[in-house]
Amino acid sequence: MKIQYRFTSETWQYKGKGGWYFVSLPPEFSVEIRAALKSEEQGWGRLKVTARIGNHEWETAIWFDTKANTYLLPLKAEVRKKEKIEDKQIVTVILFI
């Protein structure tokens, strides 16, 4: 059985190499997820999830960022393009873990 998390977050672009786009999970969700599923994490704090934004659902992973003390969800270029997602845009995300 998968646990569902629904939240809104502002997109942001990593300024380093590659320029990936992300959304940060709300801190309270990250605390809950990490407490329950840290043992399921793979290298670099990676945890497999299914994500949905708008009409697009995809298999991906969230990554725990120790500096921000929260999980980050990378946004695939294909999803950004199809959902017309830009930097600093508020999006509604549904995660299934």
Summarize the structure.
The chain has 97 residues and is α+β, with helices and mostly antiparallel strands. The protein is built from two helices and six strands. It is 19% helix and 46% strand.
What does this structure look like?
- The protein has 97 residues and is of the alpha+beta class.
- The chain has one domain (4-96): Beta Barrel (Elongation Factor Tu (Ef-tu), domain 3), CATH 2.40.30.
- Helix content is 19%, strand content 46%.
- It contains two helices and six strands; from the N terminus they run ββαβββαβ.
- The chain has helices spanning 27-37, 77-83, and strands spanning 4-13, 21-24, 46-53, 56-65, 70-75, 90-96.
- Strands 1-2-5-4-3-6 form a six-stranded antiparallel beta barrel.
- A hairpin with a 2-residue loop joins strand 3 and strand 4 (56-65).
- It is globular and about 35 Å long.
- It starts with a strand and ends with a strand.
The overall pLDDT average reads 94
Largest sheet: 6 strands, antiparallel, barrel
CATH fold title: Elongation Factor Tu (Ef-tu), domain 3
Q: Strand-residue fraction?
A: over 45%
Low-confidence stretches are: none
Shape: globular
CATH homology superfamily name:
AF2212/PG0164-like
CATH architecture: Beta Barrel
Helix content: 10-25%
How would the blueprint of this fold be written?
Elements: E1 4-13, E2 21-24, H1 27-37, E3 46-53, E4 56-65, E5 70-75, H2 77-83, E6 90-96
Antiparallel strand pairs: 1-2, 1-6, 2-5, 3-4, 3-6, 4-5
